[in-house]
Hexosyltransferase
Amino acid sequence: MPPPMPLSPYLAAVSLLLAAAFSSGWTLHAAAELPRFREAPAFRNGPGCASAPTIHIAMTLDATYLRGSLAGVLSILRHSSCPESISFNFLATRPRRFRPAVSASFPSLSFDVYRFDPALVRGRISSSVRRALDQPLNYARIYLADILPRSVHRVIYFDSDLVVVDDVARLWATDLSPDHVLAAPEYCHANFTSYFTDRFWSDPVYPDALNDRRRSPCYFNTGVMVMDLDRWRAGGYTRKLEAWMEVQKREARIYELGSLPPFLLVFAGEVKGVEHRWNQHGLGGDNVEGLCRDLHPGPVSLLHWSGKGKPWLRLDAGRPCQLDALWAPYDLLRRDGRDDLFADI
């Protein structure tokens, strides 16, 4: 048998690269794995925007929720009176993978993509009722004040499963004086005790953390928050949230719902209330079945598909809920023969 032919220098180099990648535990992703999205229209400021403040918005980007994130961006721009005054601050574990997708759909968008290092939460995440809640990027909102530049003093954080149907400047104008760190819609009718385990409530020390608040602690959804980053940094709130994550991981199982309970433990009762219209949440159903739900009574400025059911998945499966039709016009996923944005708005 003749000796095997030597690999060409090019093939040898590729082989070495692949061997190094797999031995390091890398997962290789081709750029083609990301769906293709359409280019959105260019939205311009009107004549009254010369003195408009820069509105900073933070969102996350990953392969699972990219379609939802881009729909959210489009909805914000579509309803803004001064869209060119909005600056988007995206967090991603692999910024270079997602930056081209954002640029292709929004060529004139003012944005940055910052790297979120999953190592920040390594050893602090415990399993929850839904796998999506266990992903490191779900905890990125805790680190906004550390990752974004110091020049960003305030930010609106939005989840990637929502659309805005009002001018986001109205939410930006939320008054955080005299010393609030965070503003969000509160839901004081919800059973606050249900967000923590019996082990938490039976502990002689843990519940004391909820004493001495400005008001009785109430549930709020962390998918829509106005955050004063200067006060966050000065108060060391990242570390306060991490401390409860470490209690959960190392001492006792005190909650079941991912990144939400630490926020409740640190901020509930200290939140500046926002009108409920700014988070019509729960449209994705619960965290187990994701069944269809109706809107809460009252006006609507933001639709939020929190819960297991996501509108793009239900639409693709041909089993949409009635309210998913309100998300569909903002879907930028490229489909042959369907490029007429806003035809249904």
